[in-house]
């Protein structure tokens, strides 16, 4: 009887290896979802903040309105960013027609940190600069 060499063992090993690789890649892709949502929400909040910052000739009132709009945007249910920490910073214009700045910093929790051995990420920031139009600068 002649002995035939079989590749069945190698095929099982390759299948197991690719299966584990697929699971690790799936967990990695799932871990990016909260980061993407947090970045999108922070960008929307910073943009809304900057738009309200340029709408009033009174810089204190404009800054308060801009901060309130940013937090309303961050706390909306559409964002789906539970567990994300946010910080809003508003720098009002220093004078009529001068630029102001809105920055929203966010920190996302790392999903599957124990499983994948990921390290904690730092804070990221989305920001916009706002300049009131010339005709609004003459409101005083």
Textual characterization of the structure:
This protein is of the alpha+beta class and 140 residues long. Helices cover 50% and strands 17% of the residues. Strands 1-2-3 form a three-stranded antiparallel beta sheet. α1 packs antiparallel against α2 (59-74).
In short:
This protein has a three-stranded antiparallel sheet. Strand 1 and strand 2 form a beta hairpin. The chain is of the alpha+beta class.
Topology:
Layout: H1 8-53, H2 59-74, E1 85-91, E2 99-107, H3 113-116, E3 124-131, H4 134-137
Antiparallel strand pairs: 1-2, 2-3
Helix pairs in contact: 1-2
Number of strands: 3
Helix content: 40-55%
Rounded mean pLDDT score:
80
Low-pLDDT sequence parts: none
Radius of gyration: 25 Å
Structural class: alpha+beta
Termini Cα gap: 103 Å
Determine the strand fraction and express it as a percent band.
Answer: 15-25%
Shape: rod-shaped
H-E order:
HHEEHEH
Task: Enumerate how many helices there are, as a single number.
Answer: 4
Sheet with most strands: strand arrangement:
1-2-3
Largest sheet at a glance? Answer: 3 strands, antiparallel
Task: Provide key terms for this protein.
three-stranded antiparallel beta sheet; alpha+beta; 4 helices; 140 residues
């Amino acid at each position: 009887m002649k002995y035939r060499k079989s590749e069945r063992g190698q095929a099982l090993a390759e299948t197991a290896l690719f299966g584990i690789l697929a699971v690790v890649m799936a967990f990695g892709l799932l871990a990016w979802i909260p980061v993407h949502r947090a970045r999108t929400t922070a960008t929307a909040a910073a943009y809304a903040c900057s738009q309200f910052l340029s709408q009033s000739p009174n810089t204190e009132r404009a800054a308060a309105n801009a901060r309130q709009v940013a937090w309303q945007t961050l706390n909306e249910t559409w964002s789906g960013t539970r567990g994300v920490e946010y910080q809003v910073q508003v720098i009002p214009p220093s004078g009529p027609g001068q630029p102001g700045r809105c920055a929203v910093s966010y920190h996302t929790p790392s999903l599957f940190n124990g499983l994948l051995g990921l390290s904690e990420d730092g804070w990221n920031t989305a920001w916009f600069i706002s300049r009131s139009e010339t005709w609004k600068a003459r409101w005083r």
